[in-house]
Every structure is written in structure tokens, then in C-alpha cells.
Amino acid sequence: MSDPHDDLIDSLASGLTPTRPLVDSRLWLGTMFGLVLAILYVSVVFGIRPELKGLWGGQWPDAFTPIGKPLLFLLLGLTSLWTVTRLSRPQGEMKLAYWLPVAAALSLTLFNMTLELARDGWQVSAQQLNGGVVSCFSTILCGGLAGLAVLWRFWLRRAATTYPTALAAISALMCASLMASAYALHCNMDAPVYIVLIYGLAVALFTGVSTLAGRRLLSW
Amino acid sequence: MRDAQGGDARAYRALLLSLRPWLLSYFKRRLRGGDVEDLVQMTLLSLHEKRHTYDPQAAFMPWIAAVARHKLIDYVRKAGRRVHIELTEDLGLADGLSTELAHRDVTVLLAQLPAEQARFISLQRIEGLTTDEIATSTGKNPSAVKVSIHRGLKKLQALVGVKNSGVADE
Fold it and tell me: Which residues are listed as membrane-spanning (chain A) (predicted)?
């Protein structure tokens, strides 16, 4: 009589098919391709803001914000991408260091917003929230969703993480941040209060909802 | 496992057969009062489903240990009852680790260190030489050998995900 445990091993071995291992460089390459598509979309549909167009002609903008805003979200997106590669395998560890760039970016923006609010008051600051809110929100949410769907198809559904909630959150943060960095190439709303309340809220909303939905999908 | 990812059924069967006793021992040591056999089967199934997450360039045992640990935690959570569980991180021969797998992992891990450092560690930990003997045979300063081995072992611990367990020099 055969051992039932060996039967399982026999059946797993007999049904074995070749499989392609997860390769981090493919994720990086795919994400960069997606980012280029997002930038193309924003430049064709909305147009790139004049200060950034001027950079091609060697003209440096008066303020750093037109460059700093896309860079801030790009940094956030790339850090999240790096974290996604670290968390996608069973032995991936959750480390505080992964969240430091996120905390630094958030602190910097919140600090600037607080300064602005203290200087101008809410009434004046609130006026800087008028303009492009719908397109900002819809681009980040829809673009992030498209990115997350592709990420799920090619990477996340094959992942085996020990931290499903964290991986769901960081994946959504990555997609929303990269989409926000692409949209920021067009958007000329540079007030910290706008970056926190409009960009920040769109990214946070997308991340929160995706985390709730994704944590179950990433369980294995 | 690399051969298994390529579709070699014989190598895969041999791997699963050699892992079974290790998994049994791993779960028996950490879980008292649970169905260890069930857990072994669930882990083998998960290993099969997620075999593409193993990086062929990395050591194998930290990967399978992480899969086993995940299934153990999942089992305890789903069992919804109190079970005694010990989450020790040591992955040694005490769990019946196959020497073939251990040798393969040691080779993979040492390959990630600078050649000289890997050689010092190999001479001390595998050949059994003392620091002075290594220093004499390689013409290096004993203190430099000692420091190099200490740092190398710490790097190896980090590579297999062992946290601050302290490294004994000799």
C-alpha cells in the first residue's frame, strides 16, 4: 500500500511544468515603461507646464517647485517599487527603513503646508485649492488603477508575501505616486496646501481602498 | 529547485522527498497539539504553487523556511484555538536539514562574499582551522583574519535574514 504523503509528492512532481521565476529587473523595466506611457498621456492630453518645457532650452525655472513636485512623487514611487520587490517573496522582511522616504516626503510637505497656513491663514490658502482638482483626482485615481491592474496581472498575483496588507498598500502607493509624478509635469498648482490636500488625498484614498481590497487577494 | 523551475520532475520529486522530514521536524519543534502532517502537506502545496518566487541565485533554505513559517502562522490563525508555538529562527541540522541542501546553500552564500573573506570562513567553519592557523597559511595578520571572519559571518546572517543573534568568532 502506497504512502498517502508520497502520493502527494508524486502528484506534484508528475504535474510539474516549467515556470518562469520572478525577476526584479523585469518589474523595474515594466514600471519604467508604464511611467513613460503615463508621461506621454499627460503631455498629449494636458500638456507639459511651460517651466518644464523651458528646461529643454536650458532655462532654469525661478522656483524649484515645478521640478520638486514631480521629483517628490517620483521618489515616493521608486521607493515603493523597491519595497514591492523586497516584499514579494516569502523571505522578504518588512523594515522601517522602507518607510523612511515616505515619512520624509510627507513631513517635508506637511511642514511647508503648516508654514503656509501660519503665514496666510486658511481663507487665503483655501483659494489656492481652486483649479484642476477634478482632473488631478481623476488622473491619479484612473491612472493608478490602470497601473495597479497591470501590476496585478504580471507581478502581484504571482507574489508570495508574508505581509499581504503592506504589499497591497505599497503597491497602490507606488502606482498612485508614479501617476501623480506624471500629472505633476502638467499641473501648475504648486501651493503646499494643494499638494497635501489634493495630490495627497488622491494618493491616500487610492492607497487605502486598494489596501482593503488587495490584502485578501494577496493572501496565499 | 532551480531544476524544478525548469520542469525537471525527477529533481523536483527528490527535493520534495528530502524536504518532508525537515518540514515534519520543523513543525513538530514549533507546534504542539496541532496536526503537523496537515501542515507539511499544505506547505508542500504552497511550495508548488509559489515555486517561481524562489530566486535561483539565492540560498534555498531561507526561502523554504519562510514558506513554512508563513504556513505555520496561517494555520494557527485559522485554527482559532490556543496552540503552543515557538517561532525560533534557527534553520539548522536539528530540524533534519539535508546536508546536500545545506552544502548547496553554503556555496551560494559564500559566493556572495569577497573571495578572501569566503576563504577564511570556509577554512575556519568547514575545515576547522583556528584563526592563527589560517593567518599562518595565508600570510595574513591574525587580527585581520578574525575581523574579516566576524564581518563575513554577520553579512551571511543578514543574507539569510537572521537578526542580531551575535556572532561567535571561534
Answer: 27-47, 67-84, 96-112, 132-154, 166-185, 191-214
- Judge whether B109 and B102 are in contact, CB under 8 Å: no
pLDDT at B105 over 80: no
Chain A contact probe: residue of B47, B50, B57, B105 with most A CBs at under 10 A: B50
Three cell numbers written together for A183: 500629472
Q: Tell me the C-alpha distance between A168 and B96, whole Å.
A: 35
Q: Name the 3-class secondary structure at A25.
A: helix
The domains spanning B2-97 and B112-159 adopt the same CATH topology: no
The ipTM value here is 0.77
Whole-angstrom Cα distance, residue A166 to residue B74? 16
Is the CB of A97 inside 8 Å of chain B's CB atoms? no
CB atoms within 10 A of CB B77: 8
At the top level of CATH, the class of B112-159 is: mainly alpha
Distance between CA atoms of residues A119 and A29, nearest Å: 44
Q: What is the mean pLDDT of residues B6-13?
A: 88
Give the one of A5, A6, A22 whose C-beta lies nearest to B52's C-beta. A22
DSSP 8-state class, residue A20:
P
Residue B170 has pLDDT above 50, yes or no: no
Is the minimum CB–CB distance between A18 and chain B shorter than 8 Å? Answer: yes
* Residue B168 touches partner A, C-beta closer than 8 Å: no
Residues 113-152 (A) with a CB less than 8 A from some CB of B: none
Residue B48 has pLDDT above 60, yes or no: yes
Its pTM surpasses 0.80: no
A19 Cβ under 8 Å from any chain B Cβ: yes
Enumerate the domain spans of chain A: 31-217
CATH code for B2-97? 1.10.1740.10
What does the pLDDT look like over B67-79, one tens digit per residue? Answer: 998 998 888 887 7
Q: Which of B152, B154, B125, B4 is nearest to B64 (CA)?
A: B4
Where do the structural domains in chain B lie, given as residue ranges? Answer: 2-97, 112-159
Indicate the residue of A9, A21, A90 with minimum beta-carbon distance to B16.
A9
